[in-house]
Amino acid sequence: MKKRILIIFLSVIVFIFVLNLTSCNSDTSQNNMNSNPAPDENIQNNERAVNETEAQDTRFTIREDIPELNFGGINFNILYPTWSMYNDYYFADEEIGEQMNDAIYRRTKNVEERFNITINPITNGFIDTIHPTISRSVRAGSDDYQMALTHCISGVVELTTGGLVQDWNTIPIVDFSKPWWNQRMNETMSVDGVLLPAVSDFIIFDPNVIYFNKGMVQDLDIGDMYQLVRDGKWTWAKLSEFAKLASRDLNGDGIFDKDDQYGLVTHTGWMMEGVLHSCDMYISSIGEDGYPVNNLNTERFGNLINMLYELLFVGNQTFLGEWDANNPADVYESQVPMSSNRVLFHVDPLSAGKRYRAYEVEFGILPFPKYDEDQKEYLSLSWNGFMMIPQTTDPEFAGAVTEALSAESHRLTVPAYYDVLLTSKIARDIESTEMIDMIYNGAVYDFAINFGGWTPISCPIGSILSTGRFPDYVSFMERNENSFNRQMQRVYDQIRERYID
């Protein structure tokens, strides 16, 4: 009886298989017959494909909750500095057939038409101009600017402790539960529930990352870098191990200089500060008295500093380049660039992918490594600036436009930015898309950096390691801890006085 049932069951399976195969062949024949549709059919098919993609993509299905508003044709003035990505990734005058530019243009036009406004970007100089410009406007009672885009450090303390900007938590229409707002940033940058700088998808996230040379990885036979990340085994110790394997004195002169081969190229300036956060450490934490205090008097931080010293200064695996703040890309890139095909790992901002894609060298993108395999997430410190709303701005106007710009950025400019980073002469690296998702999801901020000013403890790794001498981080903390704690306390007290008391 059981044998008969089994035979019947197998017969049914075979019948279904044959039926499906016949159907597939029929479908294939039909598709082949229509492989060259008329031009009008091509257009309709393309439009249908776009509509279906938008319907399935959660970026398009999640909508903002904004009432119908008409602002009568007025300007929404955005003040910004001529710094970093503000120069290339935020504003566009027309469509030019370039994906990121055209996405920015469409974002702007969508919001302008929605509210009957004109979005008017204004710049009057470098990062140090934003605070004095907003200060003059607010103190004069003028509604000159509806949003200020700032540097990540310069002017942040002055704008916030001076009471020149509004608390985002009081801006109507803005909905921080939506996916286009950075929730971790909101938590990190808040002072007793007051949030003065904010970050949405309108701000292009730009942490430092690890670019790697795929050809050298294959030549060194060190395995699948992407799988290493997925398995949670991409650590600073592993990077150090691989970097040592790649080092070569190419001309045999016994001197390692810019003409040789290296496992790692970086510098001891700001680019390496994110190593701290990639290891799930932060400069400050909230103490028992409610104020931020130095958080680095730990064995873990000491181990990290010693590891970095070994990586950067002991042996020949690392080339430490120079950094020129006035011309950063050209100076740094002119030393031992990834394009030389003599670098295994290169530390650079994520936005450098636009430059890298012109190289003949096939590269991939990885997050900064973890402290050890027990750490749960890959974390990336963001160096982008902030959005702030001047005190003289109508909060409903600011809220509606900002929420719409953020939602449109989520749908249009973030996907376009991925394409800018990942499309190269050689191939589109789909696996790097997975890595960039991981980098985006692990975006973190540190109050002590953004509100700490240009103090030694605000940039502890560079401050300790820039001399190249064996690090004495204990003495460094003893010299700087009290002044750092007082600085944090002043910032908190002044924000509380302006916005809470």
Tell me, briefly, the overall form. Answer: globular
Strand order of the largest sheet: 8-5-9-4-10
The biggest beta sheet is recorded as:
5 strands, mixed
Strand-pairing-aware structural class: alpha/beta
Question: Please, could you describe this protein's structure?
Answer:
It is a single chain. The chain is α/β, with parallel strands linked by helices. It has helices at residues 2-33, 39-56, 58-61, 99-115, 130-139, 156-161, 183-189, 214-220, 225-230, 236-246, 274-278, 299-313, 328-333, 353-356, 395-422, 430-441, 447-450, 460-465, 473-499, and strands at residues 75-79, 118-122, 147-149, 208-213, 262-266, 284-286, 292-294, 318-320, 343-349, 363-366, 380-381, 387-388, 443-444. It folds into two domains: 65-204 and 385-421, D-Maltodextrin-Binding Protein, domain 2 (3-Layer(aba) Sandwich); 208-381 and 427-481, Periplasmic binding protein-like II (D-Maltodextrin-Binding Protein, domain 2, 3-Layer(aba) Sandwich). It is built from 19 helices and 13 strands. The strands form four sheets. The chain has a five-stranded mixed beta sheet. Strands 2-1-3-12 form a four-stranded mixed beta sheet. Strands 6-7 form a two-stranded antiparallel sheet. Helix 4 (99-115) links the parallel strand 1 (75-79) and strand 2 (118-122). The longest helix has 32 residues, at 2-33. It starts with a helix and ends with a helix. The model is unreliable at 1-55 (pLDDT under 50).
